[in-house]
Amino acid sequence: MIIKEVMHHIEEFAPLNYAEDFDNVGLLVGNEDTKATGALITLDTLESVVDEAVEKNCNLIISFHPIIFSGLKKLTGKNYVERAVIKAIQHNIAIYAIHTALDNQYKGVNDMIAEKLQLKNREILIPKKGNIKKLTTFVPVENTEKVRNALFNAGAGSIGNYDNCSFNLKGSGSFRPNKDANPAIGEKGKVHFEEEMQLGITFPSHLEPKVLQALFNSHPYEEVAYEITTLENRHQHLGMGMIGELEQETSEEEFLKSLKTVFNTGVVRHSAVRGKTVKKVAVLGGSGSFAIDNAKNAGADVFITADLKYHDFYKTEGKIVLADIGHYESEQFTKDLLYSFLSKKISNFALILGDTNTNPIKYI
């Protein structure tokens, strides 16, 4: 198996198209055409992680966080980023990062947090906009079913918990083939009217190449008339954070205490309790202060995240309890998620969960 094939499986799970614009995801170091000896799955790529990869004969590191986040102008080994990259290059180890592409997946980072808390009725906290596209095309009536099924098989036509969704409107289309045409229907130089079906179908933006290929391969016309538009609809299964409900209500104090056990954290920093019960919980792994208002507006009793600053805690205004469980702690299950997914896709390949604890924060 080559590295590119492993990357394909990862991106099937978390397409890079959905990473945030500020992020740096994908293959950061190495050649995708290199034969992979094994993959070490980790949260961060540090020198110690590269050493572990060497020891375990893995020439690919699959990391949640990107070790290269902003541009590198020099590689002199003067900081931890440069040293990790240099060591990886010296040992011919490729580094791949997934980060916010996985953050934005419904079954990604935040779903793992929600699973640990046993939340039910889960929904994305901040659904992404501009990631649903609509294809409109025109097909001879007798060929409509073939084209429609080809588009469904390519992944189009799914809306939330429903699939095979399309709109079909019968009408009459006209065209005149010129002398250079090779028409499947009609004659050169003559206007032809054909009973056609206007077919409308939506799809997630990352599938556009696959959907268009399915359209062209299944459509009988030499020249296919079609339109693609980007919709403002929010994607129900794509976006940052998650919100759900506890099976049983509990007190704020008991819930906050339980977080220390569930996430094995040394401390939970939280805002003032309100003397109310906890039922609805919002979560966002990593730095999530930007989503405080979203959690409040969604009616969450508690918002669990990390990296909150002093003044962030004032933003509760008595409407919600904020709980900072730590950056590493909120994302610690991510490598287990990647390992579980890839193990089902690649059964005859060495996938190894990294043992190195990369949390830079210690507690006393």
From TrEMBL:
<dbReference type="InterPro" id="IPR036069">
    <property type="entry name" value="DUF34/NIF3_sf"/>
</dbReference>
<dbReference type="InterPro" id="IPR017221">
    <property type="entry name" value="DUF34/NIF3_bac"/>
</dbReference>
<keyword id="KW-0479">Metal-binding</keyword>
<dbReference type="InterPro" id="IPR015867">
    <property type="entry name" value="N-reg_PII/ATP_PRibTrfase_C"/>
</dbReference>
<protein>
    <recommendedName>
        <fullName>GTP cyclohydrolase 1 type 2 homolog</fullName>
    </recommendedName>
</protein>
<dbReference type="InterPro" id="IPR002678">
    <property type="entry name" value="DUF34/NIF3"/>
</dbReference>
<comment type="similarity">
    <text>Belongs to the GTP cyclohydrolase I type 2/NIF3 family.</text>
</comment>
<dbReference type="Pfam" id="PF01784">
    <property type="entry name" value="DUF34_NIF3"/>
</dbReference>
